[in-house]
């Protein structure tokens, strides 16, 4: 077996846990351990005995994971419940049940069959979507892992077969199949490296360590044969960062913490293998406990559509109520007017129990109300919801398969994870974007450094290029322009440094060569990276905890200081010896690693060099490191500060590098205190360690600074420029410091030189003095007052410039944002922000990102889109109307929480301006047309019933009524929703202001909706009265018969089928062969159906029996009436559209006119229309060019001249 073959593999002798200060520490019994066995801490795991009677009595959940919405047993009832939650479907269910009674004006089959068809289609769609989730579940549950079979052997088993208590062996780069208790690893001290990208989006590796009691005894597969242990721990919960338990092994209790827990879906890295005991399985695992359903999001159009449906219900009930009153009066007075004989004798009131009995007119009116509610149900489009769902799914297919949004480098296409929000993509008013990994690549490159007060590095950053464009010259690259830059050789990941003064060993010629040597040594030694050497090529690669750290180690290697080996207490690297000029191997003994964390903002190592000197090597943020320098260590401080500021201006991330020699006695004292603090079981252990390390990391000697670039993604400036031209506001929410964020803003065209910057921060002398004094309440009060004052000043500045072309940018830091988001001031902050062209929030926490998004969404009432790539963006994505996840390098957490996933920020341009506009335009037109055709059909039913004194007589045959929405008018409207293009993709890019039609909701405004409804009423009146008057007093055929209900109904129905489909022809902007087939096919289908249905027996076809072949088709008046109705019914719409197109065109109609007139290649004409999209407050390089034109005074003159000509 595989397990047996590997059972004798030697363990790695490294004991890396000894060198970590914070990550690896002994677990101790805490207060929470006393709760074990009580409520919330009742779980008992029998390790290596998953099938024992005691374990089986616990009946814990299996490891099978289900993410599907339905099961085979629940699909039908649950899906039916979902369908009938929709008020329209429930209404048709009620009318369908009523159709089983004698009150029904039509047969029950004709009422229930279309409803069943619509519900069935919706359920099939739900089933297909759920089957996709089922396939993902099958893939995950069928993954394999090695499981102990009880005899010291490990065999492959599927994840779903795992049980609580199983012992598993996980290999390098495999995912953990459940929550495991780490027992031992390939390292002697049982540490392992874990990547939690799927859990929290972080790419840096986490260090875990098993208990010494298990790691010392469990070395290889055969050691598990006799293992018997019991774990008592907390019950399943969603907390990813805590775990409380005890391990009972050989009659001893050992405390367990999160340090020993390996979470499902995290990955084993830099470690050959680990052994673990299964503690939580399936839906009990912490990652599944955290997987909450995303918030339910519905588009604004869908919510508005519900209001229209409710309005139609009101109209139906109102019409039924009025008709019932008139019917009751007519029924009561029927006998009186006829003088003993009813005037409506053809209704046979003498045979009626109630309905037409003049003696029971009030009851007849009440019963008529229910009949009328059923009869007028055709005002409500039964197939509306299912048609929209089909259209949205097909629209999502087009988005997913758009080759122009496919990123070949990572093989990632766009992915619409939900189809509910397609049209919302065309209505976005504000974009809230993360910076790192979203606007930038999150791929760090070492590009510059400052050593001994001298700046090195000739690379030009994107920000520097932008700065050069702003200044009208070339980017600054330093004074020594005569230095040759060698750009030969392949591109090295993480390294974009060019400077011959230090490359290829030339650093030895520099004046401060000794300082450069210490600097590069520090890069090669001060880290936690693990080297991997390719046996075939000898090339060394690195596994690092963060992209920054990987860039530093690669930079050291490329500059001649190659780190190639790590042992338990040593780091080996090769360097150029200053004395001999030869490459030599050096080994530094590694004594301690004081790791980086967000509170410390620095990392240090304590090493002993080959000469026996003790050295502390440190790197960290400038605001932390400069204050730790010794008086004699500040020789290069002034120049280094200048360079750091320049690097920040260039959008680079900087770290300060420093060192000091440590006295032997000092280190002995430190080591003693440090070990005591590390092994302490007191509650303040962390603070003790911090205090001791803080004392050691002082009196440092400055070496220099590093600068790494997080490059802008390709196409970001162009994308932002185009979105800004479309009138979309763009906010950036970032954790970076203000200087970096501002310069990234310039690089990506969010900011421009003409903009006035309103900067809100708390860097005032008064607040700094209070911070030094430490008066917390006074600091808070002063900060709040300062933020409010700055917001008022900013607002006054904008108000004072009203009427001018000045644009403003608001830049606010995280501290200030805390107060600006308070309930008393958030409206004031929002008012200020919305009046600015750009908004940048710096040093923002994930919670602040979500709060800002919520404020913009609720405060403006407009559609918001959030875009991000990391776990820290999840709150923002879920809070926004639309969440777009970037499938980048920060894991899949953002993508899994998003509504739509794309691979690059630049694809947002096509997603919004093209797909968004098309989806919005299509859905809007589709819904308006749906209500038009149903009102046309419903009003003819109402008019006929009114014509027959509200006697509840339908104008059409039962099946004519039922199949109108399902067969004769539904396919063309679906084709409209999928294929129509009011403007081509090329013109969407050329005229980005077109996007504002969606932002302002012009195509689905109440004005347009009511207009289409009014068009339906006009069409219905035309059809009914022309058909009625044409046949009322004339003989219909040579036999002298007049037209009856079946002939009038058949003629009106034919006219409706023709008119509503021809109306579609007039409404469509872009014809495809599909539209031709469904439009003319729907009309042909009506005639085919009429002949087939009419050929059936009269018991089934009733009054439609051979009505077409024997009555309608032979009569010339039928064809003439149809022709005249088509002409007169469509003339009002045609005239209206002609006048609108000529005198009051919408923006898309102007573009259509340009294309139609052949002006699309006329630069002057096109520029005139395009200029309407450029406003003084937009951003981007186009706005920058427009601002210069406006300043010259030519802009308005040229615009007016061209517009008059247009």
UniProtKB/TrEMBL annotation:
Print the organism lineage.
Answer: Eukaryota, Viridiplantae, Streptophyta, Embryophyta, Tracheophyta
Family matches, as SUPFAM superfamilies? Calcium ATPase, transduction domain A, Calcium ATPase, transmembrane domain M, HAD-like, Metal cation-transporting ATPase, ATP-binding domain N
So which domain of life are we looking at? Eukaryota
Gene3D superfamilies per the record?
Calcium-transporting ATPase, cytoplasmic domain N, Calcium-transporting ATPase, cytoplasmic transduction domain A, HAD superfamily/HAD-like
CDD domains annotated for this entry? P-type_ATPase_APLT_Dnf-like (cd02073)
List, alphabetically, the PROSITE patterns matched: ATPASE_E1_E2
**Species:** Eruca vesicaria subsp. sativa
Compartments where found: Membrane
Query: What GO molecular function terms would the record report?
Result: ATP binding; ATPase-coupled intramembrane lipid transporter activity; magnesium ion binding
Protein name as annotated: Phospholipid-transporting ATPase
- The segment(s) forming the P-type ATPase C-terminal domain are 895-1145
Query: What does the record give as the function of this protein?
Result: Involved in transport of phospholipids.
Residue intervals passing through the bilayer: 308-329, 363-386, 930-947, 959-979, 1009-1027, 1047-1070, 1077-1096, 1116-1136
Active site (UniProt): 434 (4-aspartylphosphate intermediate)
Record EC number: 7.6.2.1
